[in-house]
Write a structure and sequence with these properties.
Helices cover 45% and strands 14% of the residues. The protein is of the alpha+beta class. It folds into two domains: 95 residues, GMP Synthetase, Chain A, domain 3; 35 residues, no CATH class. A hairpin with a 6-residue loop joins strand 1 and strand 2. Helix 7 runs antiparallel to helix 8.
Length: 175
């Protein structure tokens, strides 16, 4: 009786030696969710800052690309906060040119800007980095005035809350 041949399990494919960019490692995993939003190029999402520049990247995020039926060119939908929308509106042509340079052809013919509040809505919350001025710090005179205003209160929790309120109101009115 002949001896049964033993087959060895196939070796897993070896990857290249050395480091690989993280974008190449996650590109396959991102392809499905991005294609549902119309993005055929994951690079537009993963390299948004490099494509459009720091100013635009801090003000807007690409949400989806809508392809119109029967016409050439798509609409790129950008999400931004209300105060930054007019600035982006003036930069639409520049943004469109930079995005099309990423694709290598005129893939995007229009840009639509959608506004939202930075916080407060369950859907559409935007995590933009705000370049706001730092909050003004209360002066020693404001601190003593706030403490004096809350001094007659006996309840410690209420006293702390009223002192904090007085400090905030006085600081805001002073600056």
């Amino acid at each position: 009786m002949p001896a049964a041949k033993r087959t060895l399990p196939a070796k897993p494919a070896r990857r290249k030696r050395g480091f690989e960019p993280a974008s190449k490692l996650v590109a396959g995993h991102l392809r499905g969710p991005l294609e549902k939003r119309g993005f055929s190029e994951a690079r537009l999402i993963t390299h948004w800052r490099e494509i459009v520049g720091d100013d635009v990247a801090e003000a807007a995020l690409p949400v989806k690309i809508r392809h119109a039926r029967g016409s050439f060119g798509a609409t790129l939908v950008l999400l931004t906060t209300g105060g930054r929308a007019p600035l982006l509106e003036m930069q639409k042509d520049t943004i469109r040119q930079k995005v099309n340079a990423c694709y290598g052809y005129n893939a995007v013919s229009k840009i639509q800007i959608t506004q939202t509040a930075p916080t407060g809505f369950a859907e559409g919350q935007v995590a933009f980095s705000a370049r706001e001025a730092p909050k003004p710090q209360p002066t020693p005179q404001i601190l003593s005035a706030a403490k004096a205003a809350a001094a007659p209160i006996r309840d410690d929790r209420l006293k702390d809350a009223l002192e904090r309120l007085a400090r905030n109101v006085l600081t805001k009115n002073n600056h």
